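Pasting as-is:
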Amino acid sequence: MKQIIYYTDKSVEERLFKLVQKHIKKSGLPIICVSLNKPVDFGKNYIFWGKRSNESMFKQVLIGLQASKADHIFMCEHDVLYHPSHFDFAPPRDDVYYYNKNAYKYKLKTGRIVKYDCRWFSQLCANRELLIQHFKKKIKVIEAGKDRRHFGYEPGSGHSRKIDKYGHEYYESKYPNIDIRHGRNFSGTGRMKIEHFRDKNTCKNFKEYKLDQIPGWSKEYLSSLAN
């Protein structure tokens, strides 16, 4: 069984907020929504009370994971347009973190669209028990006062390998997801040009695209998001 854990601090404008939810619903999968400080009418809603931070987001995710009974979990954010094909994937192993690398960044203010081999938390799919153990350990490390470099961000990569020794692999959905850079993204709105990356190994196959070059999404629809 697969399920979606949707986490939000509701820092995105209402039209995009609802649009993202509309696309997620097309997956047909059950949804657990964990919102920060406010109720959200989406899936089965749980509220986490706290300030906007990495730690709060990790705790929101853990609440969702512990409330689920599914075998495998898709992580979903409130500012990514998920194509239904994203959810067709089924992890072949339960000791690996999987990331959909078929995702484009779309900065609404400039209309710039880029794609590179990504390992973003919003594109993660993995075994639920694997994720629970990871986030329990990660939160414990954070609460012990370690700085960000000690706990990392994306499971199975970078400093997150200090939390557990499991690795990651990529998969690629038939059609891409669109990561909307709207100005209040938790991860910021930068890294839209290759020179923004200090380590070029983190942006392999970097390329810029035009709106009419994105398969599975019409130019008119993507243009309307900026209006």
